[in-house]
Amino acid sequence: MVTSSAPGKVYLFGEHAVVYGEPAVPCAIERRARVTAEEIDEGLVVHADDLQLDGFTVEYVGDDTDHPDVDAENSLVEAATGYVNEAVAQVRDAADAPDAGFEIWIESDIPLGAGLGSSAGVACAAIDAGCRELGVELPRAEIADRAYQVEAAVQDGEASRADTFCSAMGGAVRVEGDDCRRLEGVGNLPFVIGYDGGAGDTGELVAGVRELREEYDFAADTVEAIGDIVREGESVLGTEDTETLGELMDFNHGLLGALGVSSRSLDTMVWAARDAGAMGAKLTGAGGGGCVVALDETDAALTALKYTPGCDEAFRAALDTEGVRAE
Ligand SMILES: Nc1ncnc2c1ncn2[C@@H]1O[C@H](COP(=O)(O)OP(=O)(O)OP(=O)(O)O)[C@@H](O)[C@H]1O
Ligand SMILES: C[C@@](O)(CCO)CC(=O)[O-]
Predict the structure, then answer these.
(1) For a tag on the chain, would you pick the N or C end, based on fewer CB atoms within 10 A?
(2) How many angstroms does the Cα of residue 132 sit away from the middle of ligand 2?
(3) In this structure, which residue's CA is closest to atom 9 in ligand 2?
(4) Does the pLDDT of residue 214 top 60, yes or no?
């Protein structure tokens, strides 16, 4: 039996635009998904106690064709179990063990579907744990690539490498198309996270931006403008100039709003953080609901978020420089 873990992330800049080849800078945070894998004679048994569908905890037996016995729409169930099924397929491929059976336990500190990369964390940790259980140790870059294949499969091909590369490698990273690298020399940034208790459907939100981009030139221009913000942000990242970094986060949030992926609760939390004196604040991840990330060295934004109606939880998140690892 082997346990591996992988971190979640926040986007300093560039979500959504990264799907169209613009650069993005996600940063791994000290909240992890942990996956334990044990080889069994055949098949797949998954225990995902944190994963609830319409109030049902998910436990299921079987591969792609079998569904957990829960009273929920098939599409919802497929999306929920897809990451683990696809990760196990990657393990079998990497270890050249097409018939390997697994019992898998998942537990995670990363809220689901909230913009903190829970799916990337689960995918990276599952691939690492499954492979180690079969005696195969993959380099982190290969785990990143295989976890990306998992996300692409579940999200119908519409995924960037950003979340999975960041979770596999840790630290602050830069992703532009297939060009993925770690950014060295980025110290701890004073991240404060506000969580509205909700979630957004990544696939649906990405599809919405694609449609907008096809219909309106302004949306294509907005995606390019987000790329400009990322390039601008990179030039101050690693310097003392956190004020400019914060200002650019504010611009980035405005442009994500123009692409239709913010929400009332995300905007409310962003403004609560800014009003409390944060250097900048934006939604993180796919949007629609979930989390905002603010930059604040003081406790003011954290306290303000805790008292903001609609903000369920507020916490600090330190940069996690370690990616996927065996526990
Ligand atoms: N603790 C968990 N147990 C089992 N599955 C999980 C767990 N956490 C995440 N997942 C899987 O990841 C899916 C959520 O992924 P999704 O891409 O929608 O959101 P996210 O990665 O949290 O957010 P974002 O992509 O915006 O950063 C869940 O539906 C589930 O399939
Ligand atoms: C919205 C998006 O850019 C980030 C989701 O965390 C989608 C992706 O990059 O695959």
Answers:
(1) N
(2) 28
(3) 160
(4) yes
